Amino acid sequence: MKLRFKDRIALYNLVAAAAITSLVFWVVYEVVFRTAFAHLDTDLRTEQADVVKSIGFVGDSIIITKMSEWEEQEHLQEEVNPTFLQLVDGQGQLLFSSSNLLKDRFPFDPAIEKPHFFNTILKDQLVRLGRFPVKNQKGKILGQLSIGISRAESTAVLKNLRTTLFVAFPLTLLVLFLAVSLAASKSIAPVLELIRSTATISDTKINTRLPLPPHADEVQQLAKAINDLLQRIENSFNREKQFTSDASHELRTPLTAIRGTLEVLARKPRETAHYEEKISQVIREVDKMNLLFDRLLQLARLESGAVLLKKEAVNLAAVFQVLATKNQAALAGTNTKLLLEIPPETAVLADRTFLEILLSNLLGNALKYGVQNGNIHCVWEEPTRTLTISDDGPGIPAEHLPHLFNRLYRADASRTAQVPGSGLGLSIVQKIAHLENIEVSVKSGAGKGTAFTLRFPQ
Which of 11, 128, 241, 453 has its Cα between 20 and 30 A from that of 259? Predict the structure, then answer.
């Protein structure tokens, strides 16, 4: 059977209340029970003390010295709260019994060495019986005294108490269930309001936020958490929309160029040299598209979390030698000097393949946005284990720095349309840096060049 959340709260509280109520009722009954019979046991001890005063000893024999005290009227009647007395010697032979016992006898237990109290029935009467060993001045047990008194009143009180508790128990649980159900309904009312508000949110109303409950409690924290989640979803949704728009724009540009070139070629026959020139243009545009697709796939792979790193000690100077060789033509084309200030023995713990991609993107950025006849500095600082790659290009205005690692983002002032690129390189840098536990930061300013700093783990 499936229960609503409110009913489950009521049920769990009811079970807990039932357990606690049962424990309380049991304690109450146990206290009353023990108190009632403790009072009877006290009366039995008092009666035993009075009887002992009437007993004397001669050798190992018991002598009854005050017979008249035992023949009091209360010992001769059987009606209202009678007291029953029986005295036997060490072998269980009867020495005396009160007249109200008539022919009945209390059992003799030779093993009794100290007072013993228990409930029994005598002549259809409920009796509390006390057995007391009779000892002489030397402490030797010479006989046994049994005293019985009625326990009818105590039993009646306990019976009435049991009846009351058995009747009160289900009534108490019923009242508790109704109270807890009402409290549960009041408690989950804010949650139901959140559910209703959440149900109205759709992709067209992604900017809607839940109203915060007035009380600063867990429900308010839940509402804040949901609002934070909605904000993250909205941000992601907007990024995806922007990414789709930018990607479409990036793809439309080379496709438009390719289409225009082919249309020109199709209008009339051309010279072979002209065809070769236009085909070269088409190939360059296809290469741009291929690069964009490759970067998109790299980024999707990094964001999927399916990348497995193989970390090892990588010689940083050797990696830059490889990158310098790959970018030799680009460096020569702009007459840019690559200045490496990295000790030959410098090693970092990283996945070599991904580290090369990261550094290649940063070096490529420095080449694209540097100046003719400029310098690219790559400096390693061992104490802080940081690598700084800086150029002397036009720099990046401060308002663009917070968005620099966003996908397809290109700062208008310094990333002009004349500079080739997809705007994905720095996004890939950030993703790889996160996987490698490398802290990446950037410092730049208009006309001051740009410096990327990588802090490697110790």
Answer: 241
